[in-house]
Design goal:
heterodimer; A: mainly alpha; 3 strands; B: alpha+beta; Penicillin-binding protein 2a (Domain 2); Beta-lactamase; seven-stranded mixed sheet; five-stranded antiparallel sheet; 23 strands
């Protein structure tokens, strides 16, 4: 008992084992969904290799001195911004988005790395003693740090990753302790932006709503004016952004509004995904026995729609198990956030938690038909080497912070 | 100051969001998978639209005269879909399809790693009576169906088994390498042209969208097939093979171990590439009976071995032509140089000639196939210089013909013998090399190529079996062949060719195949065979004045080349040259008569 207690003191086994179990379940699902798809047959083997490499990276990062994350914050952010620029020029197009850089036989998505780099840099900025979130200038700097990678990623365009960045930005500002007014300032352009997608009437209503809030907080007229201008600008910006989106992403947003409009076209995935999960029933159809999966009714089942494979072949029990594993992972990480030895590390934990959570939220929500079809992998479960690697690296940071939580600063 | 939220509150809000999302998802899953399970299950099982792969029609083979050599013929394939199949039917199905006991069980076991919804082909090329039975008993045969697939047919009478080759079901190893295009159960070219031109022949797969009912039976086309993607037929290949000549060569070889290769000297087009004994491609067109395979494997003559391009034997006296070319080109002899033949040659021991030819020049030496002349010549040329010439004429290397079944053969050099015997290797070895015996090994195809190069004065193209292909509109596109030039003077060839002319038309070794109006130039050869009777060889081209065809014939374990190989070459040459020559004469004669008759009618 003593030994295991000591181990658990330096290494959070619960977090590590939940993530590992998710990877194992993912391997089963990858095998099942690719064994009939000749062009993807090697995915199972490749994922095992990626896992091996990721474990190595995980333990390496776990063993690093904790102060290195703060030192790395600024350079890694600017390096990742550089990569995001490079990918726009030499990137490889996959599924309509120019988001992959190929180096020799190895390829990766700079956006994956940028998630971590942005978390580190933003946490670094927010944890400075002089940063004051009641100050509009500091809010704007924080927004600029968070929005710059989003702007570059939207040019690829990769909608799913952009959502993750928005989530990270909001979560970090919130964790830092932004005032309700500050939160309103940050959130309102987003609300206006989404509203403008639905049409001019929604846009005007949202702007009206913003004006009411501004009156409520009774700030000075200059501040109110600039916030209102920001809101109106964001509405127009998003309208243009919608046109930048690749046709397949535009279609996915339309499909979400009415998936049954085009059952063979873009709504097809959404419907078939639901049918796969629903038909799984309580116990599932059994490993390799899901006809939706095996007959390949759903494309990209090994990445974005992997939850359908689990839902169909392992049923409610299987899906519940996966969701509970995620729940354990999230709550355990959240618990660590308040143990971290300083504010910077606490913010980093919240940032990483948000990345995992938004991925989970969007991916599972899409599979069960609650959210639109946005291509984004399920952390630890979906096939994909660079995604697994960066997730394990972030897990390594979390456990590193956990290991050093009692050390003096 | 506006309201601030404490750290404790913030953490609670995060907890709240996480718990809320997870609860919503669990509730939704519960609703979908437990409450609404039956609706979804029904949807899943009568699901719905499925893309069915359409295998493209494979390209066919035409011969050089646009006669169909290899075609597609419809055949029935009986399939078993493991998901619906009842294994208690095994015995019944095996009996009906004439399969051996346990075949289906074995097949299901072998394919267990693939999805049980993929139909497995139990028998290709099933009898119509079996199909009729399946059709009648359809209700009692769940998971058994049949489809019409194309199999290869060979309508021309020319077998060409080794040239045409056959396709086989793709192996898991090949599938790994070619995973972009193929599915388990697909056919892929396995040997010969079917293999070499697989990418041209296979075309592009298409997809049909069909509606599938709850038992995965096809009920109809989706939207009347507007979304279907038709498959694209493979390219039809136009071979340089002459179907008629190929057939004659095969008939003349008559099952004896041997081979015939014929090439058009000016183009490098291979008109005949026959290997004997053959095997029956019809047996390979879809389903190969085990008994037939066993028969092929135990046959001591190894029918599946392509002798035309893979049987490497000593070239015998046919090699003397090369020695003559080398000696003349190097200037170690002139056309008028005479060497003395007293019936034998002493070098350590006595090497015999088949006569006492006296003082003869190179032309007479070829005509009479005098051994002693060439025993002496090889010492003047030297082994390594001879190898240089042999390589230029395509010996000792793969020619690069467009099938994979080809060997290099062997032309030794001094390094080769040094490796075996050391620095002072016995020079006596050279004596037999001079008359094409010993370690030298060449294939019939190499001999035909060599004869064609001599006929066309050293210039030709790499031998090839395919001239080009036809597109969808039957428009011909030629493949480009690689040029060959041995870089030797015309005068050298004139002398050697004169000698070859005399072999048939003078007092040479093959005067028995002389034809009055077609001048054949040739050279006999007999390859010594330490394992049994000698191999008969003959190379020839014709007409002497304007060569149209070069032939090499090998008959294994037959004896003298003049006796066994030369008549086969004669028959091929005569058929080919006569077919083009007298036909034009006859038609022009016929035209004349018609014109005359017309004129007479007019005069009336």
């Amino acid at each position: 008992m003593r030994i295991s207690y000591k181990l658990n003191d330096r290494f959070d086994l619960t977090i590590f084992l939940s993530a590992s179990l998710l990877v194992v379940i993912g391997l089963f699902a990858i095998y099942s969904s690719t064994q009939n798809t000749i062009s993807q047959k090697g995915n199972f083997d490749k994922q095992i290799i990626s896992w091996g490499i990721s474990l190595f990276v995980f333990f390496f990062i776990y063993a690093l001195p904790t102060k290195i994350f703060k030192i790395a914050a600024v350079p890694s952010y600017f390096f990742s911004m550089l990569l995001l620029l490079v990918v726009l020029v030499i990137g490889r197009k996959v599924g309509g988005a120019r988001s992959w850089i190929a180096l020799g036989g190895f390829s990766f998505q700079p956006a994956e790395f940028a998630k971590l780099a942005t978390i580190l840099f933003l946490s670094n900025f927010l944890s400075r003693a002089e940063t004051d979130l009641d100050n509009l200038k500091d809010i704007c700097i924080a927004l600029a740090i968070g929005m710059s990678p989003i702007a570059l990623i939207m040019l690829e365009p990769d909608l799913g990753s952009s959502f993750v960045f928005i989530g990270v930005l909001l979560a970090l500002l919130f964790w830092k302790g932004i005032s309700l007014f500050g939160l309103a300032v940050v959130l309102s352009p987003g609300i206006v932006a989404v509203a403008s997608l639905f049409g001019p009437i929604y846009f005007v209503v949202a702007i009206g709503f913003v004006i009411v809030i501004l009156f409520y907080f009774k700030k000075d007229i200059f501040l109110n004016g600039s916030i209102l201008a920001l809101n109106i600008a964001s509405g127009f910006f998003v309208d243009n952004l919608y046109n930048i989106l690749s046709p397949h992403q535009q279609k996915r947003i339309q499909t979400f509004i009415d998936p049954n409009a085009d059952p063979l076209g873009s709504g097809y995935n959404a419907i078939q995904a639901k049918v796969a999960i629903g038909s799984g029933g309580f116990l599932g159809k059994g490993f390799l026995h899901g006809n939706q999966t095996q007959l390949q009714f759903i494309p990209e089942q090994w990445t974005d729609f992997i939850f359908c494979v689990i839902g169909e072949e392992f049923g409610f029990i299987g899906s519940l198990f996966v969701i509970v594993l995620f729940l354990v992972l999230f709550l355990r990480i959240l618990r660590l956030a308040s143990f971290a030895k300083n504010e910077f590390l606490s913010l980093v934990i919240i940032g990483i938690l948000t990345v995992f959570f938004v991925h989970f939220l969007v991916n599972v929500g899409m599979a069960i038909g609650i959210l639109p079809v946005i291509g984004i992998p399920l952390p630890f479960v979906s096939y994909g080497g660079s995604s697994l690697l960066i997730n394990m690296a972030m897990l390594g940071i979390i456990l590193n912070i956990h290991r050093s939580r009692k050390e003096s600063t | 100051m506006s309201a601030r939220i404490s750290l404790f509150e913030r953490k609670k809000i995060f907890y709240g969001i996480i718990i809320a999302v997870v609860s919503i998802y669990i509730f939704k899953l519960f609703q979908m998978q437990i409450l609404a399970h039956e609706q979804f299950d029904a949807k899943s099982s009568d699901n719905s639209i499925k893309a069915i792969e359409q295998i493209a029609l494979r390209g066919v083979f035409y011969d050089r005269n646009m006669k169909l050599l290899v075609e597609n013929a419809p055949a029935y394939t009986v399939r078993v879909t493991p998901a619906d199949y009842d294994t208690s039917l095994n015995r019944k199905i095996e009996t009906i399809l004439d399969l051996e006991n346990g075949f289906i069980k074995n097949m299901l076991f072998k394919n267990r790693i693939y999805s049980k919804f993929i139909p497995l082909r139990a028998k290709r090329g099933a009898d119509f009576s079996a199909i009729a039975w399946i059709e009648e008993n359809r209700e009692h045969l769940p998971g058994v169906d049949y489809i019409i697939e194309m199999q290869r047919g060979y309508p021309s009478g020319a077998m060409g088994a080794h040239v045409f080759g056959y396709s086989k079901e793709i192996s898991p190893q090949q599938l790994k390498k070619e995973e972009q295009y193929y599915q388990p159960g697909d056919l892929i070219g396995s040997i010969g042209l079917e293999k070499k031109y697989e990418k041209d022949l296979r075309g592009e797969k298409g997809y049909n969208y069909i509606l599938v009912d709850s038992r995965r039976r096809e009920v109809g086309k989706y939207k009347d097939g507007v979304n279907d993607l038709p498959s694209q037929k493979g390219k039809d290949l136009v071979l340089s093979i002459d179907g008629e000549l190929q057939k004659i060569a095969e008939e003349e070889l008559n099952g004896r171990a041997g081979a015939v290769a014929a090439i058009e000297p000016s183009t490098g087009e291979v008109m005949v590439l026959a290997s004997s004994p053959q095997f029956d491609l019809n047996q390979f067109s879809y389903f190969t009976p085990k008994d037939y395979l066993r028969e092929l494997f135990i046959d001591p003559l190894k029918p599946q071995f392509n002798r035309a391009s893979m049987a490497a034997h000593p070239p015998g006296s046919t090699f003397k032509l090369l020695c003559a070319v080398a000696a003349l080109d190097l200037g170690v002899i002139t056309p008028s140089t005479t060497l003395y033949c007293g019936g034998s040659f002493n070098f350590g021991r006595s090497f015999k000639c088949h006569g006492s030819h006296g003082s003869i020049n190179v032309i007479q030496a070829i005509e009479k196939s005098c051994n002693v002349f060439f025993y002496q010549l090889i010492f003047k040329i030297g082994l390594d210089r001879l190898k240089n010439y042999a390589t230029r004429f395509g010996f000792g290397k793969k020619l690069g013909i467009d099938i994979n079944e080809e060997v290099r053969g062997l032309i030794p050099n001094s390094a080769y013998y040094e490796k075996i015997y050391g620095k002072n290797w016995p020079r006596g070895i050279l004596v037999s090399l001079g008359i094409g015996q010993g370690e030298i090994n060449v294939t019939p195809l190499q001999l035909a190529n060599y004869c064609g190069l001599i006929a066309n004065n050293g210039k030709s193209f790499v031998p090839h079996l395919v001239k080009g292909y036809l597109d969808e509109n039957k428009k011909f596109f030629a493949y480009k062949a690689k040029e060959v030039n041995v870089g030797i003077n015309q005068s050298v060839f004139d002398i050697v060719k004169e000698g070859m002319y005399l072999v048939v038309n003078g007092a040479g070794t093959a005067t028995h195949i002389r034809i009055n109006d077609i001048h054949i130039a040739g050279k006999t050869g007999t390859a010594q065979n330490p394992h049994g009777k000698d191999h008969a060889l003959f190379v020839a081209f014709a007409p002497y004045e304007n060569p149209k065809i070069a032939v090499a014939v090998l008959v294994e374990n037959a004896g003298f080349g003049a006796t066994w190989a030369a008549p086969i070459a004669k028959k091929i040459i005569e058929t080919y040259v006569r077919r083009s020559m007298p036909k034009t004469a006859a038609t022009s004669y016929k035209n004349k008569i018609e014109v005359k008759q017309g004129a007479e009618t007019f005069a009336d």
